UniProtKB/TrEMBL annotation:
The chain crosses the membrane at residues 12-35, 47-67, 97-116, 128-152, 172-197, 209-233, 239-262. This is Uncharacterized protein. Keywords: Membrane, Transmembrane, Transmembrane helix.
Length: 312
């Protein structure tokens, strides 16, 4: 079976990204509602609002550049030599280079949020975040270097044949390594917290899987795994995953921000259940102290004989 035609692949990829953008828009609106209207603090967390806005702005710019590329490839340049296939094969085209840069910036912010969650889940232990931070920095360097080389390079006949894609391969591999390391660390710690404290709450037992999947960024890790597999297979189906990931890298972190705003992360549940356990133990200790201070009826000496008749 032959590979999918590049022009068709790109058309479907833009459509898929538009669908995910609709989800991203809904999540962003929900995030603003939670952080402003449903906030649990007296002040709005401006850092979370700024991060969510940056993610949404970058993902909006990425999908916004897709339509002009479709118009240029299928309408403006359709009668040029090679047609749409030649146009979409040229990744050094300016709009595509800008999209790559936006994708890289979005991934950096997304990785930063995941590292932050890893830091929080592991009780703010910096040692657990050393490897993810190093991988995230290396991925960012390779991603931006690939963007610069792509923008400055001459036109190439195919995306997988150009030497600048050594940087792209490195960026994809390091992004996957970053995602897998952070996802594993968060999932292990979250599963432990929910396993220990989840037995106290039946509702928590049912929501355990949802919390682990969302908070650990497992969805992004799976998507990146598919993306890098298709890329190293030199399959045009790579773009069917690559474009929607530009929205996923905003959707997943925004969902985590919503959970943090609603205080539904594993840390928040851990804290509430711990406080509940302390309050309950204190209440039980109070009952025991009252019981020990009560009069023990079996130690009262009742009068016998004549003394009993006098009492009656």
């Amino acid at each position: 079976m032959g590979d999918i035609q590049l022009s068709k692949t790109y058309l479907v990829a833009i459509w898929l990204e538009s669908v995910f953008y609709g989800v991203n828009l809904a999540m962003f609106c929900g995030c603003l509602f939670v952080l402003h209207v449903k906030r649990r603090t007296s002040r709005v967390n401006r850092v979370r609002v700024a991060v969510a806005t940056a993610l949404f702005s970058l993902s909006s710019a990425h999908v916004g550049l897709g339509l002009p590329r479709l118009i240029e490839g299928f309408i403006v340049l359709r009668n040029t030599p090679g047609g749409p296939v030649a146009f979409f094969s040229d990744e050094s085209e300016l709009k595509n280079a800008i999209q790559v840069g936006i994708h890289t910036a979005n991934s950096i912010i997304s990785n930063g949020i995941m590292v932050w969650r890893c830091y929080c889940v592991w009780n703010r232990d910096c040692k657990m975040c050393i490897l993810p931070i190093l991988l995230a920095i290396a991925s960012a360097v390779c991603g931006f270097e690939y963007t610069v080389e792509l923008a400055l390079s001459k036109k190439s006949p195919h995306a997988f044949a150009h030497t600048v894609h050594v940087w792209k391969k490195s960026s994809l591999a390091l992004s996957l390594a970053t995602s897998l390391s952070v996802t594993s660390l968060i999932a292990i710690r979250t599963c432990y917290i929910l396993r220990v404290f989840g037995q106290r709450s039946m509702a928590l037992q049912y929501s355990k899987a949802f919390i682990v999947v969302v908070e650990s960024g497992m969805i992004c890790a799976l998507a990146l795994g598919c993306e890098i597999t298709l890329f190293f297979m030199s399959s045009n189906a790579f773009y069917l995953v690559y474009n929607p990931i530009a929205q996923l890298t905003a959707i997943v972190p925004t969902t985590i921000i919503i959970l943090a705003g609603l205080e539904l992360t594993s840390n928040d549940l851990h804290a509430r259940l711990t406080d509940f356990g302390e309050d309950r133990s204190g209440f039980e200790n109070g009952l025991e102290s009252k019981a020990s201070a009560a009069i023990q009826l079996d130690t009262i000496l009742l009068p016998v004989g004549d003394e009993a008749s006098d009492v009656v």
